[in-house]
Amino acid sequence: MADQPDKIPWHPGFYGAAELELRADSDVLTFIQEYNLSKEPLRADLLVIRKKPGVQITNEIGRIFKGHNIIEYKSPDDNLTIDDFYKAAAYACLYKSLGQTVDQYPGKDITVSLFREAYPRELFSALRSSGRSIEEKFPGIYYVTGDVMFDTQIVVTGRLTADSHSPLRILSKDAGKEDVRRFLRETSSLKTPGDRNNADAVLQVSISANRGLYEDLRRESFMCEALEDLMKDVIEQRVEEKVEERIGERVSQAVSQAVSQAVKLNTEQVTEQKDKEMAVKLFGRGMSMDTIAELVGRSADVIRQWVSPVSQA
């Protein structure tokens, strides 16, 4: 199976990542996905509304936020160009113009954020050529100043600080093992259904884009140690039995064959047991069956059978 499918639904993962990134201030923020900017199908990817004026958002990405925040996200397959920059500004203009009363949304209370994994070199060059200034306010977070109608930032997710932004960093076709490990550690303690659903959305997209990586991590994190212990016991047992019967080269050959047979017979059974234990554990943490199926490499029907006693308890 190829590591990277042709079409990956990146945006649902981004919505989940954005809410996870900003969850420390979720009580003062409202998230509206694909916000309609007109009666026609013209939508901003994400609208974030700060419910309490003057509150300083904890996450670095939200430091620029004001009352109304237009967000445009580009998947790893998409470019981020000067036209996208103007389109995001146009979305903000449309949003400002659609208030129910005159100046209901003051321009000074609106911000624009553009997200992309890779550094948008051509866009930055075009912005500088037009007389605008770009400042890296925080690692991977660039403020654009000069000829802009709204406070604007460009977030390069691949350059965000690793220990603070794992939800966005693993939305990549080349996710790092340590970023994934950190994300799984951080999200294992999430309690609310909303946070768990967001983590699930991020994980599903990341798995789809990095199947080989997650297969390696699955073996490393949940199965490798147990299999090593099993093989060690089998080898020791078979060596002890055969040493008493044969000597020299024939002993070595017999031990090797016995060990291979034992490992072959037991590995599948142990693998299934470990997969089942992992599935039950993840289900208990609130992860969806589809995501569990992706992680352990089993069908959703098998996962459903394994977790059925837990769900009925």
Structure in words:
With 313 residues, the chain is of the alpha/beta class. The chain has two domains: 10-209, no CATH class; 222-312, no CATH class. Helices cover 51% and strands 15% of the residues. The protein contains ten helices and seven strands. It has helices at 10-21, 82-97, 121-129, 166-169, 177-187, 193-209, 211-243, 248-284, 289-296, 300-312, and strands at residues 29-36, 43-50, 68-73, 110-116, 133-138, 141-145, 151-156. The chain has a seven-stranded mixed β-sheet with strand order 1-2-3-4-7-6-5, with helices on both faces. The longest helix is centred in the last third of the chain and has 37 residues, at 248-284. The protein is elongated.
Tertiary shape: elongated
Number of helical segments? Answer: 10
Tell how many strands the DSSP assignment holds: 7
Strand order of the largest sheet: 1-2-3-4-7-6-5
How many domain units?
2
Helix content: 40-55%
